[in-house]
Specification:
Elements lengths: L1 E6 L7 H16 L7 E3 L13 H4 L1 E2 L2 H14 L2 E11 L2 E9 L5 E6 L9 H4 L8 E4 L2 E7 L6 H9 L4 E6 L6 H15 L2 E6 L1 E4 L2 E4 L3 E3 L5 E4 L5 E6 L2 H10 L2 H4 L6
Parallel strand pairs: 1-2, 2-4, 3-4, 8-9, 9-10
Antiparallel strand pairs: 1-15, 4-5, 5-6, 7-8, 10-13, 11-12, 13-14
Length: 260
């Protein structure tokens, strides 16, 4: 399976400019000599952290942004996994990652479980209630959003339930970029899974975002790594490699969860 992360700047509260960026980067990604099967976007790609207007900028179940991605998916015959939007249900707004298949159909979503207090998420958003797993390209996949990657037990739960790929969308700041890289590689190594992580770049107000999106193999190898500016990076991932790793170093057989 060929995966591609589309690292982009996000203009706070301006959905049209952000959609124009996604259109442009999608076309660029699909010009690759080996075009991707799946594209990954950053966290809150359509609105950024304009949380004080979360109710105004959200749509029911995130359907407006899902419809936009669905149109791109059909046009370019590519799926989207990860990359979150503001989703409203019964007056409650959540930070939702979306999966859209290459026919433009909404497959599933994941609502961010761990809300980041330093960005006041807990004041404006409701947390999700659990993991989301789905199958794509012959691989079992899971979703995470930004702060979630600091919670090793949450990602381990996904791996125990069979996840071989973790798709991550984030708005991670440059001040903690070392944490970003260390945590992503640790989640890949300890769970013997691929981690496909797309971070935002650019600056909003006083906050500069790190970029440095990456695709990490189950042995911790960096298969692709972006810099700090807008960039599209791709790599191929292989279910057989995950399974070989898990047979060679059988951490899931050797766990002793009753002691943890």
């Amino acid at each position: 399976m060929r995966v591609c992360v589309m690292q982009m700047d996000v203009v706070k509260g301006n959905r049209e400019i952000n959609r124009d960026t996604v259109r442009r980067l999608t076309a660029k990604a699909m010009e690759n000599a080996c075009p991707p099967d799946v594209l990954v976007l950053p966290e809150l790609w359509s609105t950024g952290y304009d949380l004080s207007r979360a109710g105004e900028l959200s749509s029911p179940m995130g359907e407006d942004d899902a419809a936009f991605l669905g149109g791109l998916a059909r046009r370019h015959h590519v799926a989207f996994a990860g990359g979150s939007v503001l989703s409203e249900e019964n007056g409650v707004v959540r930070n939702r990652a979306q999966v859209i298949d290459s026919d433009g159909r909404y497959v599933t979503g994941y609502d961010k479980v761990h809300l980041f207090r330093l960005m006041d998420e807990h004041r404006y958003l409701a947390p999700g209630s659990g993991l989301t797993l789905f199958d794509f390209g012959g691989m079992r996949c899971a979703l995470a959003i930004c702060y979630d990657i600091r919670f090793c037990e949450f990602i381990r739960k996904a791996a125990v339930e069979g996840a071989e790929v973790l798709f991550v969308g984030a708005e991670w700041p440059v001040a903690r970029w070392e944490h970003w890289e260390t945590l992503l590689r640790a989640r890949a190594v300890e769970n013997e899974m691929y981690v496909v992580a797309c971070n935002r770049c650019g600056t909003t107000g006083t906050e500069t975002f790190a970029g440095r999106s990456m695709i990490v193999a189950p042995d911790g190898t960096l298969l692709a790594h972006a810099g700090e500016e807008e960039q599209v990076v791709c790599a191929s991932i292989d279910a057989a490699f995950v399974r070989r790793m898990r047979e060679t170093i059988p951490v899931f057989q050797d766990r002793v969860p009753e002691l943890y």
